[in-house]
Design goal:
The complex is a heterodimer. In chain A, strands 6-7-8-3-9-10 form a 6-stranded mixed β-sheet, sandwiched between helices. Chain A contains 11 helices and 10 strands. By secondary structure, chain A is an alpha/beta fold. Chain A has helices at residues 2-7, 60-66, 97-103, 118-128, 135-148, 152-155, 168-180, 198-211, 224-230, 248-253, 258-264, and strands at residues 22-31, 34-44, 49-53, 77-85, 88-89, 104-107, 186-190, 216-220, 233-238, 241-247. In chain A, helix 4 (118-128) packs parallel to helix 7 (168-180) and helix 5 packs across helix 7. Helices cover 36% and strands 24% of the residues of chain A. Chain B has one domain (8-235): Phosphate transport system protein phou homolog 2, domain 2 (Methane Monooxygenase Hydroxylase, Chain G, domain 1), CATH 1.20.58. Chain B has helices at residues 8-41, 44-75, 79-112, 121-144, 147-177, 182-214. In chain B, helix 1 packs parallel to helix 3, helix 4 (121-144) runs antiparallel to helix 5 and helix 5 packs antiparallel against helix 6. Classes of the chains: A alpha/beta, B mainly alpha. The A-B interface holds A 1, 4, 7-9, 224-225, 228, 252-255, 260-262, 264-269 and B 2-7, 10, 76-83, 147-148, 151, 210, 214-216, 218-220.
């Protein structure tokens, strides 16, 4: 049976990413007394899409929110461990949270454009961060962000209309344009397509694939098919822990852990 | 193997797929058995039955392909489910070929039954019985997801190849002894090759069982013992 076990290729834990963009070690999160995340070690590779999957309440969104310290906005939330962005601990006292969130942008489940014009939605971040010296530069940022978000053709002639008047899929792309307008390095996406129809979802997925040329993307999704389609690496969370992390292809064709297999094949319970 | 799906109808569809493969395997086994019996007993009725029985295996292969397309489209299977479904599709085409070879054996046995019995019939029958045992083992391994058993089937292909090579030499000898043997021996050569090919398909099935259960390919080099390709008549 030993020969068979070696044939079965029971191999070591997939190596961590070489020179990761984000390096988390021993990350634990508490909401009051309740521990939501337990000693998570995870490396996020630059310019790739990392998908976080797992059942509801497994800690994947909690982990995502640690990456730009969004958890601090939640009452009673407490984070332990280290998360390094390009080697710097983002929980260090000297880190400016506003700057951090400019480097690590976020797109939410429900599109949440500001009640402002399409132009102002995108121009908002660059204005408050002082990224443009004049109107021409600001126009340029808005134009290029909407172009990269694949929305420009649909909105170029109605930039002064309210962002909330767009369709759901367009609103989500507007939120992506808003996130990339401040030139972040990392984009966090928390179920960005769960409120969208399949066509709008496909458009966003295509966009995610293009954006990874320039950004590091971490996406939380309940759709395993979506994780399989858009990501290069996948981490499976369960009960606040990482059970398995590896190449997306391996996770979905031949996961190492029984619990991963049970979840992705629909046997969980 | 793994516990049940939350969606029970998915389990039922997977069970049905496996049942179809097992039915195909059982049919292919009995087609080979009957073809060997028809040859050794010179039973032309039985041979006709084998020839007619091939259509059922062909039909089942199409049925398996339909089930697989439906499962892929409607269930988007992952991991072991995906590997099981892909393996089932490939195994079904291996079994379909096995049954074709059995039908061809039956056709040739009809011709041989018109001729004088040959001495090497016994050797062919032994080769056939060996491959029949291999088939039985590989389909048992499929039904129980037994990787050890499928691996032992995989190793036994060497034995099949050795026996085939020696039969090949024997038949050449008879042909050289007396040219009147050439017709019968040529049929027997093709029959021996057909049986040897059935063994190769059983080996394919063994590899697919390994892939289904473990997700890994066989990493050892496949046993390659068929030396008949290199046998020269003058060297016999």
């Amino acid at each position: 049976m030993n020969a068979l076990a070696s044939m079965a290729g029971i191999d070591a834990q997939p190596g961590s990413v070489v020179s990761p963009k984000i390096r988390s070690r021993g990350v634990s999160v508490y909401y009051g007394d309740k521990q939501a995340l337990k000693e998570v070690d995870l490396d996020i590779g630059a310019n790739q899409v990392t998908a976080l999957i797992g059942p509801s309440g497994c800690g994947k969104s909690t982990y995502l929110r640690c990456l730009n310290r969004m958890n601090e906005t939640i009452e009673g939330c407490h984070v332990n461990g280290t998360i390094e962005l390009d080697g710097e601990n983002i929980y260090d006292g000297s880190v400016d949270v506003v700057q951090l969130r400019a480097r690590v942008g976020m797109v939410f489940q429900k599109p949440n454009p500001f009640p402002k014009s399409i132009y102002d939605n995108v121009a908002y971040g660059p204005r408050i961060h002082g990224l443009a010296r004049n109107k021409d530069e600001l126009d340029e940022i808005v134009q290029s962000s909407l172009t990269r978000a694949g929305l420009i053709k649909e909105v170029h002639d109605r930039m002064d209309q309210p962002g909330t008047g767009l369709s759901g899929g367009q609103q989500q792309r507007l939120c992506i344009a808003r996130a990339i307008a401040v030139s972040p390095e990392v984009i966090l996406m928390d179920e960005p397509c769960s409120a969208l129809d399949p066509i709008a979802t496909a458009t966003i997925e295509e966009l995610i694939d293009e954006l990874r040329q320039n950004f590091t993307i971490v996406i939380v999704t309940h759709s395993m098919q979506q994780a399989a389609r858009v990501s290069q690496r996948t981490a499976f969370f369960h009960l606040g822990k990482i059970i398995e992390v590896g190449d997306t292809e391996t996770i979905f064709t031949n996961p190492r852990e029984e619990r991963t297999q049970a979840y992705i094949t629909g046997r969980f319970g | 193997m793994a516990s049940e799906h939350l969606v029970k109808s998915f389990d039922e569809q997977l069970e049905r797929l496996n049942a179809s493969i097992s039915e195909m395997g059982g049919l292919a086994e009995s087609q080979l058995q009957m073809a060997l019996d028809a040859l050794s007993r010179r039973d032309t009725d039985l041979a006709q039955k084998v020839i007619a029985g091939d259509a059922r295996v062909d039909q089942l292969e199409k049925d398996v392909a339909q089930q697989v397309v439906r499962l892929l489209a409607l269930r988007q299977p992952m991991a072991i489910d995906l590997r099981g479904i892909i393996s089932a599709l490939k195994i079904s085409s291996d079994i379909e070929r096995i049954a074709d070879y059995a039908a061809n054996l039956a056709k040739r046995s009809l011709v041989l039954s018109q001729m004088q019995p040959m001495r090497s019939m016994g050797g062919l029958d032994r080769l056939g019985r060996l491959v029949l045992a291999v088939l039985k083992d590989v389909f048992d391994a499929f039904a129980t997801n037994d990787v050890q058993k499928s691996h032992s089937v995989w190793l036994r292909d060497q034995e099949v190849d050795d026996m085939y090579t020696s039969l090949f030499r024997e038949l050449l000898t008879y042909m050289m002894e007396d040219p009147r043997n050439i017709t019968a021996c040529t049929h027997l050569l093709f029959m021996a090759k057909n049986i040897e090919r059935i063994g190769d398909h059983a080996t394919n099935v063994a590899e697919l069982i390994q892939f289904k259960v473990t997700g890994k390919e066989m990493t050892e080099a496949r046993p390659k013992g068929d030396k008949a390709n290199y046998v020269k008549a003058e060297a016999v």
